[in-house]
Amino acid sequence: MTKPGADPAGPLPEPADDLAAARLRRRITGEAASGVTRGSDSRRAVFRAARRVARDWVPADQLPAADEVRDEVHRRLDATGSLAHLLGDRFDALAACVAVLATVRQDPTRHPEGDALEHSLQVFGLVHAERPFDEELLTGALVHDVGLAIDRRDPVAATLEAVGDLLTPRTRWLVESLPAARAYADGTLGHRARKRLESHPDFLDALLLGEADRRGRQRGLAAPSLDEAIAILRQLAADDEAPDGG
């Protein structure tokens, strides 16, 4: 039985203008999510997507919010929390895994630099200033926080699961040992763990990564873009594969 005053035909359909605006918003959201997977931050990706999709000015209230873009990026993740399945070679896959960090907001009191992608790029830049020829260490600097986009309760394990076979054993150890390196630097690492860390051949590199992680939290610190960081890693890999004197 229809309630008094109710419309027996059901709710009225949305006006055509509203439907068109909703479709445009969804298209912009999808295009912006693709921009984020290529390393752009969410806000810049939305504006670029709006220009490409609408080919005209779009009112601010019709643009998707950052959380809509984040949700779309996360919808594209595979079961391990990675975007690697969407792209080509090892470096494209690494870039896709890291790019998701643009959607991860952090506590501004501890991370005034901004999102987790900006932090990772600052860490990469600081390590590059010290060890510009160490591809494995630089890769660890770039990917060390990937797990924050997947499981904040255990980001290190999530990082190693998401990045998987894209890392060498040495890079995996450096990422896995980063919490111990942080604790070592601030004097809170237990005696046995301290001795174990000190005995590893890459001990000093782990400390360097930990120090870069601590310092890579500065507002406005110059850092490479994700594309530039990936280009550096590609070139280092190419140099390693080139014959001597090539």
Structure, described:
The protein has 246 residues and is mainly alpha-helical. The chain has two domains: 58 residues, no CATH class; 155 residues, Orthogonal Bundle (Hypothetical protein af1432). The chain is built from twelve helices and no strands. The longest helix has 22 residues. The protein is elongated and about 70 Å long. The relative contact order is 0.11.
Tags for this model:
246 residues, 12 helices, elongated, 2 domains, Hypothetical protein af1432, mainly alpha
How many separate structural domains?
Answer: 2
Largest sheet: none
Strand-pairing-aware structural class: mainly alpha
**What is the CATH topology classification name of the largest domain?**
Hypothetical protein af1432
Please provide the count of β strands: 0
* Rg: 22 Å
CATH superfamily of the largest domain: Hypothetical protein af1432
- Helix segment count? 12
Terminus-to-terminus distance: 84 Å
Q: Name the beta content range.
A: under 5%
Oligomer: single chain
Order of helices and strands: HHHHHHHHHHHH
**What characteristic shape results from the CA principal axes?**
elongated
In the CATH classification, which architecture of the largest domain applies? Orthogonal Bundle
Low-confidence stretches: none
